[in-house]
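Hello,

Our lab assistant flagged a job as stuck in the queue for most of the afternoon. It eventually completed. Since we weren't sure the result was trustworthy after the delay, we are filing this so someone can double-check. Below is the sequence as submitted and the structure that was eventually returned. Let us know if re-running is recommended.
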Amino acid sequence: MIIPLFFYKHANPLDLIKIEIYLRIRMKELKNIKVLVATQDHLIYVDQVNDAIDVASKERGTGIARRTYDYIANKMLEGKAIIALENGETFAGFCYVESWGAKSFVANSGLIVVKEYRGIGLATEIKRKAFALSRQVYPNAKIFGLTTGLAVMKINHELGYRPVTFSELTDDEDFWKGCQSCVNYDILQRTGKSKCLCTGMLYDPAWEQEKKTEEKPEEKKQNGWAIKGTLLDIINKLKPNKNGTQSKKQEGFSLFRKNKKS
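-- returned structure --
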């Protein structure tokens, strides 16, 4: 729950106390919610999951299709679903992992949070858990999603997703068939699956490797010698102390060093 700054400036002390009490209660509830990988022990929640999806579909007006009992149950049995339970028994949220394009693409789908538990960061916790599960089960797959929700976009961005064109997403027809139940499907058809009201977001594991490569310090070689550090580092190391002398550490510093032969 986000309270606008202007409200604090004009609210009376009693209202501020009530807000503080409310926020503390909600955060306490979040601490009591366990977000875990679903198993066969959680099959009793399948109908509640689908009911929550129905409610969210009507609220969003996106026409998200209700999944079958077997579909949700299989996700739980396969260890590819995340469920959130308050005090270990009250259903609070759900998400599942689905692979596409010969397992080269993965989507965290069906993210849902029961209305009573919204606004306390539960969606973020579920999404993080689903993301970690996806990386564990499909370490080399690209993780993607389509969303119109600003909150989901923000969570995805924090996890390392980037906005992309639809052409960078899976071309698996079975995935795109899932959009047929959306009220905006005609837009997707008219544009040849190139755009819609949803924003495509993608996480590519290869980016992590690229990032590590970029962060690795480089050595510029000249005639068999290697220059270490930046110019600023070199200047700072060569600066004399206040007494006009160099420290032992500075005396031992050399601008150039000979490369070792392999």
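-- support follow-up --
The delay was a queue issue, not a problem with the job. The result is valid. The chain has two domains: 33-214, 218-258. Residues 218-258 form one domain.
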